[in-house]
Design goal:
- The protein has ten helices and 14 strands.
- By secondary structure, it is of the alpha/beta class.
- It has two domains: 155 residues, 3-Layer(aba) Sandwich (Rossmann fold), CATH 3.40.50; 127 residues, Beta Barrel (Elongation Factor Tu (Ef-tu), domain 3), CATH 2.40.30.30.
- Strands 1-4-3-2-5-6 form a six-stranded parallel sheet, sandwiched between helices.
- Helix 1 links the parallel strand 2 and strand 3.
- 32% of the residues are buried.
Length: 313
Amino acid sequence: MRIIKDWRGLPEDARGAVVALGNFDGVHLGHAHVLRAAHRARPNAPLGVLTFEPHPRELLRPYERPFRLTLAPARADGLAALGVQIIYEMPFDAQFSEMNAETFLSEVLDKGVGACHLVCGPDFAFGRRRGGDTHFLAARAEALGIGLTVVRPFNDEAGQLSSSRIRRALQDGYPERAALKLGHHWAIRGIVIPGDRRGRAIGFPTANVLLGRHLEPARGVYAVTTALADGRRLRGVANIGRRPTVSAVPESLLEVNLFDFAGDIYGEEIEVALIAFLRPERRFAGVDALRAQIAADAAEARRVLDLAVPPSA
């Protein structure tokens, strides 16, 4: 798979794809539905996705708390797993945000990417102040000789599936519900940083990862599986909560105790998948009470993981 970060001066072998449009945050079952429609529309053309980095909402509403389900590398991996061959990852900055719909269609999608066919959902909007919609696309794409498929929403028993619904499930403490909508367990990917070693001191060492731009799910304890940089996947128990930084600004932190593991993985990237929410976070009267609760959490996580099954696709 190729990741292309500009629409100008592309080689011919990077042009002519059928292009699905959207943010694709989470790469969920609704996104897979759109990509299947894109492949059906032009099965002999390369399958491409045009998306944005950062997510437009991060630029336009920087005061909001982090909300991303997937950052760019995880999103790319998820799209590749669904057969995407080219990602046009457009840098979304202040100048790009001022581009009107007509310029975006003619300069980026037509002259730049050279899309042979466009695919999007019915709510897709683009250009300055979201000035372009599917009606605009239908009229202008045809004039430019570009095909268009507007895909009907992907629904489950609760209605239209969306990244927003998945975020709510995670924030409410239901990672298994999120997994059913994603088609895979939701995971946090990041670099292991040094901690305060309190876990090691009480017999439960942890690998610590800052959530950064990831959505913060319900704070508390989870049964998890963790993929290490060397490809191993380990089971464990994790806590997600807040801690003060050196600047006294609270940061969201994931601390995972990996079962039956004693290696040094500082500085390595790991991916921690949330399987089940065990309990909300709470304070303890002392170290002994904390140690006893962590032991109970670890035992419960092992029991839950023994029973866990992959999310249905």
